[in-house]
């Protein structure tokens, strides 16, 4: 039986600014679908269509707007809505060119906060020169306005639209068009048909082998991101998706809307990969307090932290996964994997409790009947150390994780 808690928690008035802004957006009714013109409009009778296929060459070469041609099939056909986050709507889609099943996340780029989050996701995904099996595969990003699409490329100074997006984000005021001519960013990525980590774990019987495999996959993904100087900053079970197309479940870290590419640490290897472990992401200080409170490290609440914050979030996720500790999200009423500290009738995020009392001892395992090896107990305690310097970094974690067994 999982530990369930509803509502009773404190600390919302201390929730960081960025997270509050995300929560406020959730209360805004979803915008209507974008107006579709020309070939797009014809396709919209049955499905919604994104940038036309004929635009592909022009988009890749020139980066300029591409006009729909009446004979061209849509570049992507949207099949159904599959998810809705704080600032984006995600659709299942089919590639008009290859017939491949994909996921497309649409973000409306009017409010500066939306643009900021969209650009964060864009910069993180496009900064990766290589793929990793446990990071959601990014295909392309299309900027759409007035039913016309153009492929976005990183730092394209030729594209007036791209520059205006950056300006919108920097100035914090609407630069791009008016409400009647909205602009959208579409992120095309691999489709993860297996749901998220919450759904996967909570709909199956506990299995130490699956836990171990997931721990290794997640650690490998975070080490890859940190090696590439990306701090995710919003690791939580909802942002960990699953595919089972090849048999065994494969985890995919997704949702880079709060991520940070640590600029200035971009020393690249000969082949363009960022392999220089000496360029240390753990020495890059970040200051915007953001994330989802139950997974936030104590130093994130204070707004002075490094990539070690991702290690803390991973510690919370793994601890909750092994013991199946859940809470009910007050806003969505969904059951989510996550550990917390009980204080009377309230539940408090572990990071927040550690901020108040850094000497607080964590009781791992939390449940008497949980069978946990000494190795995993110690590893979790280290990952959840109040002082980030006492936590292993992602590279140390990779070698330690390999050696631990879950059950005693
Ligand atoms: N590649 C994908 N394949 C399948 N489903 C996906 C994919 N990407 C996202 N989703 C679904 O859409 C939901 C929202 O996606 P995502 O987390 O990227 O958006 P978001 O707006 O950043 O959300 P939030 O800020 O609330 O975390 C996910 O929780 C998931 O259910
Ligand atoms: Mg999300």
Automatic annotation (TrEMBL):
| Record bears the keyword S-adenosyl-L-methionine | no
Write one Gene Ontology MF term: protein serine/threonine kinase activity
Pfam families in the cross-refs: Pkinase
What are the BP-aspect GO terms?
A: negative regulation of G2/MI transition of meiotic cell cycle
Looking at the record's lineage, which domain of life comes first?
Eukaryota
Which family is annotated? Belongs to the protein kinase superfamily. Ser/Thr protein kinase family. GCN2 subfamily.
Q: What GO cellular component term, any one, is given? A: cytoplasm
Question: Which residue stretches belong to region Disordered?
Answer: 1-44
| Full protein name | Serine/threonine-protein kinase 35
Q: Which residues bind ATP?
A: 105
Q: Per UniProt, which keywords does this protein have?
A: ATP-binding, Kinase, Nucleotide-binding, Serine/threonine-protein kinase, Transferase
Where in the sequence does UniProt note compositional bias of the Basic and acidic residues kind? 1-28
Q: Which residues form the Protein kinase domain?
A: 76-404
Lineage in the entry?
Eukaryota, Metazoa, Chordata, Craniata, Vertebrata
Matching entries from PROSITE patterns are given as:
PROTEIN_KINASE_ATP (PS00107), PROTEIN_KINASE_DOM (PS50011), PROTEIN_KINASE_ST (PS00108)
């Amino acid at each position: 039986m999982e530990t369930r808690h509803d509502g009773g928690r404190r600390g919302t008035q201390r929730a960081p600014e960025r997270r509050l802004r995300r929560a406020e957006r959730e209360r805004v009714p979803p915008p209507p679908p974008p107006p579709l013109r020309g070939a797009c409009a014809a396709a919209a009778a049955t499905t919604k269509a994104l940038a036309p296929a004929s635009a592909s060459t022009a988009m890749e070469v020139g980066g300029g707007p591409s006009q729909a041609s009446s004979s061209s099939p849509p570049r992507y056909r949207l099949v159904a809505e599959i998810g809705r986050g704080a600032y984006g709507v995600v659709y299942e889609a089919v590639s008009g060119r290859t017939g491949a099943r994909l996921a497309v996340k649409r973000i409306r780029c009017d409010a500066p906060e939306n643009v900021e989050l969209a650009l964060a996701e864009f910069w993180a995904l496009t900064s990766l020169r290589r793929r990793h099996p446990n990071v959601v595969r990014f295909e392309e990003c299309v900027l759409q306005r007035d039913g016309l699409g153009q492929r976005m490329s990183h730092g394209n100074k030729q594209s007036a639209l791209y520059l205006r997006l950056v300006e919108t984000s920097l100035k914090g005021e609407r630069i791009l068009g008016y409400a009647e001519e909205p602009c959208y960013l579409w992120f095309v990525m691999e489709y993860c048909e297996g749901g998220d980590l919450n759904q996967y774990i909570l709909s199956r019987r506990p299995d130490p082998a699956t836990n171990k495999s997931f721990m290794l996959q997640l650690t490998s993904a975070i080490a890859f991101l940190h090696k590439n100087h990306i701090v995710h900053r919003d690791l939580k079970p909802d942002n960990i998706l699953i595919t089972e197309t090849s048999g065994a479940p494969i985890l995919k870290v997704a949702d880079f809307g709060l991520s940070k590419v640590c600029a200035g640490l971009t020393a690249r290897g000969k082949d363009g990969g960022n392999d220089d472990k000496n360029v240390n992401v753990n020495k890059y200080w970040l200051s915007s307090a953001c994330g989802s409170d139950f997974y936030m490290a104590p130093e994130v609440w204070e707004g002075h932290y490094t990539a070690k914050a991702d290690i803390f979030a991973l510690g919370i996720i793994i601890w909750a996964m092994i013991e199946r500790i859940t809470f009910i999200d007050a806003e969505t009423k969904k059951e989510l994997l996550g550990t917390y500290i009980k204080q009377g009738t309230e539940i408090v995020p572990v990071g927040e409790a550690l901020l108040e009392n850094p000497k607080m001892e964590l009781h791992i395992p939390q449940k008497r009947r949980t069978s946990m090896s000494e190795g995993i107990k110690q590893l979790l305690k280290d990952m959840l150390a109040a002082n980030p310097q006492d936590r292993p970094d992602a590279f140390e974690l990779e070698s330690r994780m390999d050696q631990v067994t879950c059950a005693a």
